[in-house]
User: Fold this.
Amino acid sequence: MISLPGSLALAAILATSAVDVRSTTQCPSGAEVGERLRPLLPPATDAAAPPHVAQLEAVEAGADDLTTVRLRLYRADGHVIGDRRVALQGTCQEIADALAAIIAAWETAPMPGASLEESPTPTIATSSASATLGQRSRLELAAGANAGVALVGGVAAAGNVELVLGRPTSRWQARIGAGTETARRLDLPPGGVDWSHTTFAAGLVVRSLHPRWALAFDAGPVMGWATLAGSGFTTVRKPQRSFEYGATGGLRAGRRVGRVAVWLEGRMQLWAQGLQARVTGGSSADVPLWELTASLGMSLLIF
Assistant:
């Protein structure tokens, strides 16, 4: 048996006004907006009434990288309660908060005898929506990793890890990263030298603010060491490590899905000083002053 207080609580939950949120995009998804909408809605007066339907349709980003979303709210009989194009800027979560606030306003505070339909002119969400999107001072941190191939002086496997810090609505971010690679070989008759780079880099990132497609370029200083190990002759007896420094730049493009981004990257590194392997009394070979890598990576938004 269910007690009277339990019955009242269950009835209150079942009586909560429901809105079926549907979205043609994953940023934000209908589930994300619906999750943020539920606590904003009051209990419904008629629990048996069919739910209203909110339809989200994203339009390509326009000026200033604002994401234009067409938001429509219907009754079950097809009557349009609200129809508006809203220009928003921010992360998927922030856009979901803003759209949920607009739907809640339509559901809870309709204008008696007046139509809520709006012209299709893009507008900026105001009141609680703009407050959500106005958190420009907040920082976000993303951690990423990638793996690929180095293509100069032979082919080698390469990998990097990184941290990227910046404001959600800013084009500019800061990046730090570390990378390593397997060895490539220089032939020095009667033997050869195996060489590789280990790197640490820092730089500035300029990026697009499109909510789904990620495009970014970064550049900055790089330092580390080159490791050379001889084989096939006796003049090089142990690995030799040489400190080096230079500059690096990377261009990446990818796709954002919620807090995760998957991307392809091309990166170039230029070294300020050249390295040379030499056999005593014999031949020598130069380690390339530049290298190019291609990789596939993934980033996760931590906060």
